[in-house]
Amino acid sequence: MADPELPVPDGLVLRPFRGVRFAVADLAAVTSPPYDLIGETGVRDLLTAHPNNVVRLILPGADRHRYAEARQTLHAWLSSSVLVTDEVPGVYVYEQSGPGTLQRGLIGEVGLASPERGTILPHEDVMPGPVADRLALMRTTEANLEPIFLLYEGGGGAATRLVDQVAAARTPLVETVTGDGLRHRLWAVTDPAELAAVDADLRPRRALIADGHHRYATYRALQAEHRATGHEAAGHHTAASPDSAAGPWDFGLALLVDSDAYPPDLQAIHRVIPGLPLGEALARAKGAWQAHEYADLAEGLAALREIAGPAFLLAAGGPAHLITDPDPDQVAHAMPTGRSARWRALNTSILAEFLLPKVWGMRDDEHSVRIVHHDPEAAVRLAHDFGGTAVLMNPLAVDDVLAVAAQGERVPRKSTSFGPKPRTGLLMRLLTPGRSC
To answer: Cα–Cα distances in Å, from 227 out to 9, 191, 275?
Structure first.
Protein backbone atom coordinates (compact mmCIF):
# COMPACT_ATOMS: atom_id res chain seq x y z
CA MET A 1 0.00 0.00 0.00
CA ALA A 2 1.11 3.56 -0.65
CA ASP A 3 2.23 5.64 2.31
CA PRO A 4 -0.85 7.75 3.21
CA GLU A 5 1.42 10.62 4.24
CA LEU A 6 2.93 10.91 0.78
CA PRO A 7 1.10 12.88 -1.92
CA VAL A 8 -0.38 10.68 -4.62
CA PRO A 9 -0.34 12.08 -8.18
CA ASP A 10 -3.73 11.79 -9.87
CA GLY A 11 -2.24 10.16 -12.95
CA LEU A 12 0.96 10.49 -14.93
CA VAL A 13 2.17 14.00 -14.08
CA LEU A 14 5.08 15.63 -15.91
CA ARG A 15 5.58 19.11 -14.52
CA PRO A 16 7.63 22.02 -15.90
CA PHE A 17 10.81 23.04 -14.07
CA ARG A 18 13.73 25.42 -14.42
CA GLY A 19 16.38 23.38 -16.17
CA VAL A 20 20.07 23.66 -15.29
CA ARG A 21 22.37 23.55 -18.30
CA PHE A 22 26.07 23.88 -19.11
CA ALA A 23 27.12 27.22 -20.61
CA VAL A 24 30.34 26.04 -22.29
CA ALA A 25 31.51 26.13 -25.89
CA ASP A 26 32.01 22.38 -26.34
CA LEU A 27 28.82 20.93 -24.90
CA ALA A 28 29.54 17.37 -26.00
CA ALA A 29 32.77 17.38 -24.00
CA VAL A 30 30.98 18.01 -20.69
CA THR A 31 28.35 15.29 -21.10
CA SER A 32 28.58 11.57 -20.38
CA PRO A 33 26.65 8.30 -20.58
CA PRO A 34 24.50 7.44 -17.55
CA TYR A 35 26.53 6.81 -14.40
CA ASP A 36 26.11 3.03 -14.41
CA LEU A 37 27.52 2.67 -17.93
CA ILE A 38 30.85 4.33 -17.12
CA GLY A 39 33.76 2.11 -16.12
CA GLU A 40 37.05 3.23 -14.55
CA THR A 41 38.61 3.83 -17.96
CA GLY A 42 35.55 5.80 -19.02
CA VAL A 43 35.82 8.06 -15.98
CA ARG A 44 39.44 8.84 -16.79
CA ASP A 45 38.58 9.58 -20.41
CA LEU A 46 35.74 11.91 -19.44
CA LEU A 47 37.87 13.75 -16.89
CA THR A 48 40.46 14.27 -19.60
CA ALA A 49 37.87 15.45 -22.14
CA HIS A 50 36.94 18.61 -20.21
CA PRO A 51 37.65 20.03 -16.72
CA ASN A 52 33.91 20.56 -16.22
CA ASN A 53 32.70 17.15 -17.39
CA VAL A 54 29.54 16.08 -15.55
CA VAL A 55 31.25 12.88 -14.40
CA ARG A 56 32.75 15.01 -11.58
CA LEU A 57 29.19 15.33 -10.26
CA ILE A 58 27.68 11.90 -10.93
CA LEU A 59 30.78 9.82 -10.07
CA PRO A 60 32.89 11.91 -7.70
CA GLY A 61 36.11 10.55 -6.15
CA ALA A 62 36.28 7.30 -4.21
CA ASP A 63 36.91 8.59 -0.67
CA ARG A 64 34.31 9.16 2.03
CA HIS A 65 34.07 12.87 1.21
CA ARG A 66 33.07 12.25 -2.40
CA TYR A 67 29.44 13.36 -2.03
CA ALA A 68 30.45 16.62 -0.36
CA GLU A 69 32.98 17.08 -3.16
CA ALA A 70 30.18 16.74 -5.73
CA ARG A 71 28.10 19.32 -3.87
CA GLN A 72 31.03 21.77 -3.73
CA THR A 73 31.70 21.27 -7.44
CA LEU A 74 28.05 21.83 -8.31
CA HIS A 75 27.90 25.04 -6.25
CA ALA A 76 31.17 26.28 -7.76
CA TRP A 77 29.93 25.71 -11.30
CA LEU A 78 26.66 27.48 -10.54
CA SER A 79 28.48 30.42 -8.95
CA SER A 80 30.89 30.78 -11.87
CA SER A 81 28.12 30.36 -14.50
CA VAL A 82 29.61 27.18 -15.89
CA LEU A 83 26.08 26.01 -15.14
CA VAL A 84 23.10 28.31 -15.68
CA THR A 85 19.47 27.96 -14.62
CA ASP A 86 16.68 28.78 -17.08
CA GLU A 87 14.55 31.73 -15.99
CA VAL A 88 11.16 30.30 -16.98
CA PRO A 89 9.95 26.81 -15.99
CA GLY A 90 9.31 24.53 -18.93
CA VAL A 91 8.96 20.99 -20.15
CA TYR A 92 11.78 20.20 -22.56
CA VAL A 93 11.53 18.46 -25.91
CA TYR A 94 14.57 16.21 -26.34
CA GLU A 95 15.64 14.61 -29.61
CA GLN A 96 18.37 12.04 -30.27
CA SER A 97 19.16 11.23 -33.88
CA GLY A 98 21.81 9.45 -35.88
CA PRO A 99 22.25 6.61 -38.37
CA GLY A 100 19.27 4.33 -37.81
CA THR A 101 18.21 6.25 -34.69
CA LEU A 102 15.49 8.80 -33.99
CA GLN A 103 13.95 9.25 -30.57
CA ARG A 104 11.98 12.21 -29.26
CA GLY A 105 10.41 12.78 -25.88
CA LEU A 106 9.73 15.20 -23.05
CA ILE A 107 11.92 15.95 -20.04
CA GLY A 108 10.23 17.28 -16.92
CA GLU A 109 9.51 16.60 -13.26
CA VAL A 110 7.56 13.35 -12.99
CA GLY A 111 5.21 12.91 -10.02
CA LEU A 112 6.39 10.01 -7.86
CA ALA A 113 4.04 7.11 -7.22
CA SER A 114 4.36 3.68 -5.66
CA PRO A 115 4.28 0.68 -8.03
CA GLU A 116 0.94 -0.35 -6.49
CA ARG A 117 -0.66 2.73 -8.04
CA GLY A 118 0.05 1.35 -11.52
CA THR A 119 1.06 4.77 -12.85
CA ILE A 120 4.82 4.24 -13.06
CA LEU A 121 5.71 0.57 -13.44
CA PRO A 122 9.12 -0.84 -12.59
CA HIS A 123 10.13 -4.00 -14.41
CA GLU A 124 13.41 -4.80 -12.62
CA ASP A 125 14.39 -5.32 -9.01
CA VAL A 126 16.99 -3.01 -7.47
CA MET A 127 20.05 -3.68 -5.34
CA PRO A 128 20.53 -1.84 -2.02
CA GLY A 129 24.12 -0.75 -2.76
CA PRO A 130 23.41 1.43 -5.81
CA VAL A 131 20.30 2.92 -4.15
CA ALA A 132 22.32 3.87 -1.05
CA ASP A 133 25.00 5.44 -3.25
CA ARG A 134 22.55 7.49 -5.34
CA LEU A 135 20.60 8.48 -2.22
CA ALA A 136 23.73 9.85 -0.56
CA LEU A 137 24.59 11.77 -3.73
CA MET A 138 21.10 13.25 -4.21
CA ARG A 139 20.73 14.05 -0.51
CA THR A 140 24.07 15.88 -0.42
CA THR A 141 23.86 17.73 -3.75
CA GLU A 142 20.12 18.39 -3.48
CA ALA A 143 19.87 17.81 -7.21
CA ASN A 144 18.72 15.37 -9.86
CA LEU A 145 21.84 15.19 -11.99
CA GLU A 146 20.54 12.89 -14.73
CA PRO A 147 17.05 11.91 -15.89
CA ILE A 148 15.52 8.48 -15.67
CA PHE A 149 14.01 7.07 -18.88
CA LEU A 150 10.27 6.29 -19.02
CA LEU A 151 8.20 4.79 -21.85
CA TYR A 152 4.46 5.18 -22.30
CA GLU A 153 1.95 4.06 -24.93
CA GLY A 154 0.88 7.42 -26.26
CA GLY A 155 -0.75 6.47 -29.53
CA GLY A 156 0.62 9.63 -31.12
CA GLY A 157 -1.51 11.80 -28.81
CA ALA A 158 -1.36 15.52 -28.18
CA ALA A 159 1.94 15.39 -26.28
CA THR A 160 3.66 13.50 -29.11
CA ARG A 161 2.19 15.77 -31.77
CA LEU A 162 3.56 18.78 -29.91
CA VAL A 163 6.97 17.11 -29.57
CA ASP A 164 7.13 16.54 -33.33
CA GLN A 165 5.89 20.02 -34.17
CA VAL A 166 8.49 21.63 -31.92
CA ALA A 167 11.32 19.51 -33.34
CA ALA A 168 10.28 20.26 -36.91
CA ALA A 169 9.73 24.00 -36.69
CA ARG A 170 11.55 25.64 -33.78
CA THR A 171 15.14 26.63 -33.16
CA PRO A 172 16.72 24.39 -30.53
CA LEU A 173 17.95 25.74 -27.24
CA VAL A 174 20.79 23.20 -27.30
CA GLU A 175 22.39 21.21 -30.11
CA THR A 176 25.48 19.00 -30.01
CA VAL A 177 26.91 15.79 -31.46
CA THR A 178 28.52 13.34 -29.04
CA GLY A 179 31.33 10.91 -29.71
CA ASP A 180 28.96 8.05 -30.43
CA GLY A 181 27.65 9.95 -33.47
CA LEU A 182 24.28 10.91 -31.98
CA ARG A 183 22.98 14.43 -32.39
CA HIS A 184 21.19 15.84 -29.34
CA ARG A 185 18.74 18.74 -29.55
CA LEU A 186 16.73 20.37 -26.77
CA TRP A 187 13.84 22.86 -26.79
CA ALA A 188 12.01 24.49 -23.87
CA VAL A 189 8.20 24.49 -24.00
CA THR A 190 6.90 27.25 -21.73
CA ASP A 191 3.59 28.30 -23.30
CA PRO A 192 0.79 27.68 -20.75
CA ALA A 193 -1.65 26.38 -23.36
CA GLU A 194 0.89 23.90 -24.73
CA LEU A 195 1.82 22.75 -21.23
CA ALA A 196 -1.86 22.27 -20.40
CA ALA A 197 -2.35 20.14 -23.53
CA VAL A 198 0.61 17.95 -22.57
CA ASP A 199 -0.71 17.58 -19.03
CA ALA A 200 -4.19 16.62 -20.18
CA ASP A 201 -2.84 14.02 -22.60
CA LEU A 202 -0.46 12.38 -20.11
CA ARG A 203 -2.57 12.21 -16.94
CA PRO A 204 -4.68 9.16 -17.89
CA ARG A 205 -1.66 7.19 -19.06
CA ARG A 206 0.93 5.03 -17.32
CA ALA A 207 4.66 4.66 -17.88
CA LEU A 208 7.23 1.89 -17.73
CA ILE A 209 10.65 2.56 -16.23
CA ALA A 210 12.96 1.71 -19.12
CA ASP A 211 16.17 2.86 -17.43
CA GLY A 212 16.82 4.26 -13.99
CA HIS A 213 15.21 1.81 -11.55
CA HIS A 214 17.81 2.59 -8.88
CA ARG A 215 17.39 6.32 -9.35
CA TYR A 216 13.59 6.06 -9.21
CA ALA A 217 13.89 4.05 -6.00
CA THR A 218 16.20 6.81 -4.76
CA TYR A 219 13.67 9.51 -5.67
CA ARG A 220 11.04 7.73 -3.57
CA ALA A 221 13.44 7.11 -0.67
CA LEU A 222 14.43 10.79 -0.64
CA GLN A 223 10.79 11.83 -0.81
CA ALA A 224 9.94 9.62 2.18
CA GLU A 225 12.94 10.96 4.08
CA HIS A 226 11.92 14.58 3.65
CA ARG A 227 8.28 13.92 4.45
CA ALA A 228 9.22 11.95 7.56
CA THR A 229 11.59 14.62 8.91
CA GLY A 230 9.37 17.57 8.05
CA HIS A 231 12.09 19.05 5.83
CA GLU A 232 10.08 18.96 2.66
CA ALA A 233 10.91 22.07 0.69
CA ALA A 234 8.08 24.47 0.12
CA GLY A 235 8.00 26.37 -3.11
CA HIS A 236 5.95 24.34 -5.60
CA HIS A 237 2.35 24.04 -4.43
CA THR A 238 0.62 22.05 -7.12
CA ALA A 239 -1.93 19.75 -5.50
CA ALA A 240 -1.00 16.11 -6.01
CA SER A 241 -4.03 14.90 -4.06
CA PRO A 242 -6.95 16.76 -2.52
CA ASP A 243 -5.36 16.90 0.93
CA SER A 244 -1.66 17.48 0.29
CA ALA A 245 0.61 19.92 -1.51
CA ALA A 246 3.54 18.62 -3.50
CA GLY A 247 7.06 19.98 -3.15
CA PRO A 248 10.25 19.44 -5.14
CA TRP A 249 11.04 16.17 -3.34
CA ASP A 250 7.77 14.69 -4.57
CA PHE A 251 9.05 14.74 -8.15
CA GLY A 252 12.05 13.43 -10.04
CA LEU A 253 13.78 14.31 -13.30
CA ALA A 254 12.59 12.07 -16.16
CA LEU A 255 12.57 11.66 -19.93
CA LEU A 256 9.18 10.41 -21.14
CA VAL A 257 9.00 8.81 -24.61
CA ASP A 258 5.93 7.63 -26.53
CA SER A 259 6.91 4.05 -27.43
CA ASP A 260 4.18 3.88 -30.09
CA ALA A 261 5.76 6.77 -31.99
CA TYR A 262 9.38 5.92 -31.13
CA PRO A 263 9.79 2.19 -30.42
CA PRO A 264 12.74 1.58 -28.10
CA ASP A 265 15.88 -0.33 -28.93
CA LEU A 266 16.05 -3.15 -26.39
CA GLN A 267 19.46 -4.79 -26.04
CA ALA A 268 20.90 -7.52 -23.85
CA ILE A 269 23.01 -7.16 -20.73
CA HIS A 270 25.68 -9.87 -20.70
CA ARG A 271 27.34 -11.50 -17.68
CA VAL A 272 30.98 -12.23 -16.90
CA ILE A 273 31.84 -14.73 -14.17
CA PRO A 274 35.40 -14.08 -12.97
CA GLY A 275 37.26 -17.14 -11.78
CA LEU A 276 34.98 -19.68 -13.48
CA PRO A 277 37.07 -21.06 -16.37
CA LEU A 278 35.23 -21.71 -19.61
CA GLY A 279 36.04 -25.41 -19.56
CA GLU A 280 34.59 -25.85 -16.08
CA ALA A 281 31.50 -23.77 -16.90
CA LEU A 282 30.84 -25.86 -20.00
CA ALA A 283 31.42 -29.18 -18.26
CA ARG A 284 28.92 -28.35 -15.52
CA ALA A 285 26.36 -27.06 -18.02
CA LYS A 286 26.38 -30.28 -20.04
CA GLY A 287 24.50 -32.03 -17.25
CA ALA A 288 21.36 -30.03 -18.08
CA TRP A 289 21.91 -28.35 -21.45
CA GLN A 290 22.70 -29.30 -25.04
CA ALA A 291 26.09 -27.84 -26.04
CA HIS A 292 27.20 -26.81 -29.53
CA GLU A 293 30.70 -25.59 -30.38
CA TYR A 294 31.45 -22.79 -32.86
CA ALA A 295 34.81 -21.83 -34.27
CA ASP A 296 34.72 -18.23 -33.05
CA LEU A 297 32.59 -15.61 -31.36
CA ALA A 298 31.00 -14.32 -34.57
CA GLU A 299 29.72 -17.75 -35.56
CA GLY A 300 28.45 -18.39 -32.06
CA LEU A 301 26.60 -15.07 -31.90
CA ALA A 302 24.98 -15.73 -35.28
CA ALA A 303 23.74 -19.08 -34.00
CA LEU A 304 22.53 -17.54 -30.73
CA ARG A 305 20.40 -15.00 -32.59
CA GLU A 306 18.53 -17.83 -34.33
CA ILE A 307 17.41 -19.46 -31.08
CA ALA A 308 13.92 -18.52 -29.87
CA GLY A 309 14.00 -20.36 -26.54
CA PRO A 310 16.41 -20.09 -23.60
CA ALA A 311 20.00 -20.17 -24.84
CA PHE A 312 23.36 -18.74 -23.80
CA LEU A 313 26.70 -18.43 -25.52
CA LEU A 314 29.71 -19.19 -23.33
CA ALA A 315 33.02 -17.71 -24.42
CA ALA A 316 36.40 -16.51 -23.21
CA GLY A 317 38.30 -16.11 -26.49
CA GLY A 318 38.73 -18.81 -29.12
CA PRO A 319 35.86 -21.23 -29.76
CA ALA A 320 32.44 -20.29 -28.38
CA HIS A 321 29.92 -22.75 -26.97
CA LEU A 322 26.16 -22.37 -27.36
CA ILE A 323 24.01 -24.07 -24.71
CA THR A 324 20.35 -24.69 -25.57
CA ASP A 325 17.35 -26.83 -24.66
CA PRO A 326 17.72 -27.03 -20.89
CA ASP A 327 16.21 -30.02 -19.13
CA PRO A 328 12.60 -28.92 -18.54
CA ASP A 329 12.21 -30.84 -15.29
CA GLN A 330 15.35 -29.32 -13.78
CA VAL A 331 14.27 -25.83 -14.88
CA ALA A 332 10.76 -26.24 -13.50
CA HIS A 333 12.12 -27.44 -10.17
CA ALA A 334 14.43 -24.39 -9.94
CA MET A 335 11.78 -21.78 -10.69
CA PRO A 336 10.20 -20.00 -7.70
CA THR A 337 6.52 -20.60 -7.06
CA GLY A 338 3.97 -17.89 -7.64
CA ARG A 339 5.53 -16.65 -10.85
CA SER A 340 3.69 -16.42 -14.16
CA ALA A 341 4.49 -18.72 -17.06
CA ARG A 342 5.75 -15.70 -19.02
CA TRP A 343 8.17 -14.75 -16.25
CA ARG A 344 9.40 -18.33 -15.91
CA ALA A 345 10.18 -18.49 -19.64
CA LEU A 346 12.41 -15.37 -19.72
CA ASN A 347 16.05 -16.19 -20.47
CA THR A 348 17.15 -13.91 -17.62
CA SER A 349 14.85 -15.75 -15.19
CA ILE A 350 16.37 -19.06 -16.23
CA LEU A 351 19.83 -17.54 -15.87
CA ALA A 352 19.15 -16.12 -12.41
CA GLU A 353 17.18 -19.06 -10.97
CA PHE A 354 18.68 -22.09 -12.71
CA LEU A 355 21.92 -21.69 -14.63
CA LEU A 356 23.82 -19.57 -12.14
CA PRO A 357 22.66 -21.01 -8.78
CA LYS A 358 21.86 -24.62 -9.65
CA VAL A 359 24.42 -25.35 -12.34
CA TRP A 360 27.28 -23.08 -11.28
CA GLY A 361 26.54 -22.57 -7.57
CA MET A 362 26.36 -18.77 -7.41
CA ARG A 363 23.84 -15.96 -7.32
CA ASP A 364 23.42 -13.30 -9.98
CA ASP A 365 24.49 -10.47 -7.69
CA GLU A 366 26.90 -7.56 -7.80
CA HIS A 367 29.56 -9.50 -5.84
CA SER A 368 29.75 -12.72 -7.90
CA VAL A 369 28.92 -11.55 -11.40
CA ARG A 370 30.01 -8.61 -13.51
CA ILE A 371 27.75 -7.13 -16.16
CA VAL A 372 28.52 -5.74 -19.61
CA HIS A 373 25.92 -3.73 -21.50
CA HIS A 374 25.38 -4.59 -25.16
CA ASP A 375 28.95 -5.41 -26.19
CA PRO A 376 29.71 -9.16 -26.45
CA GLU A 377 33.30 -8.55 -27.51
CA ALA A 378 33.93 -6.46 -24.39
CA ALA A 379 32.39 -9.19 -22.24
CA VAL A 380 34.68 -11.81 -23.78
CA ARG A 381 37.76 -9.62 -23.26
CA LEU A 382 36.81 -9.12 -19.63
CA ALA A 383 36.28 -12.86 -19.15
CA HIS A 384 39.67 -13.58 -20.67
CA ASP A 385 41.40 -11.02 -18.45
CA PHE A 386 39.83 -12.49 -15.29
CA GLY A 387 40.22 -16.14 -16.20
CA GLY A 388 36.44 -16.48 -16.32
CA THR A 389 33.52 -17.04 -18.63
CA ALA A 390 31.37 -14.60 -20.58
CA VAL A 391 27.69 -15.55 -20.63
CA LEU A 392 26.11 -13.89 -23.66
CA MET A 393 22.38 -13.80 -24.32
CA ASN A 394 19.68 -12.52 -26.63
CA PRO A 395 17.72 -9.42 -25.55
CA LEU A 396 14.27 -9.85 -24.07
CA ALA A 397 11.25 -8.97 -26.18
CA VAL A 398 9.65 -5.61 -25.38
CA ASP A 399 6.20 -7.22 -25.26
CA ASP A 400 7.39 -9.71 -22.64
CA VAL A 401 8.81 -6.93 -20.46
CA LEU A 402 5.61 -4.88 -20.70
CA ALA A 403 3.41 -7.90 -19.97
CA VAL A 404 5.44 -8.93 -16.93
CA ALA A 405 5.46 -5.38 -15.53
CA ALA A 406 1.73 -4.88 -16.15
CA GLN A 407 0.86 -7.87 -13.96
CA GLY A 408 2.99 -6.58 -11.10
CA GLU A 409 6.04 -8.79 -11.62
CA ARG A 410 9.62 -7.71 -12.11
CA VAL A 411 12.21 -9.32 -14.32
CA PRO A 412 15.53 -10.28 -12.68
CA ARG A 413 18.07 -7.53 -12.16
CA LYS A 414 19.93 -6.18 -15.18
CA SER A 415 17.67 -7.96 -17.66
CA THR A 416 17.14 -5.10 -20.08
CA SER A 417 18.98 -2.20 -21.65
CA PHE A 418 16.60 0.17 -23.39
CA GLY A 419 18.01 2.81 -25.68
CA PRO A 420 18.94 5.27 -26.75
CA LYS A 421 19.44 6.49 -23.19
CA PRO A 422 19.33 10.22 -22.42
CA ARG A 423 22.72 11.87 -22.36
CA THR A 424 23.80 12.96 -18.89
CA GLY A 425 24.74 16.62 -18.51
CA LEU A 426 22.37 18.15 -21.04
CA LEU A 427 19.77 18.99 -18.40
CA MET A 428 19.78 18.86 -14.59
CA ARG A 429 17.33 19.80 -11.87
CA LEU A 430 17.95 21.54 -8.55
CA LEU A 431 15.86 20.69 -5.51
CA THR A 432 17.03 23.41 -3.12
CA PRO A 433 14.46 26.13 -2.38
CA GLY A 434 15.36 29.44 -3.92
CA ARG A 435 17.37 27.82 -6.70
CA SER A 436 14.89 25.33 -8.15
CA CYS A 437 11.97 27.68 -8.39
So the answer is: 15, 32, 45
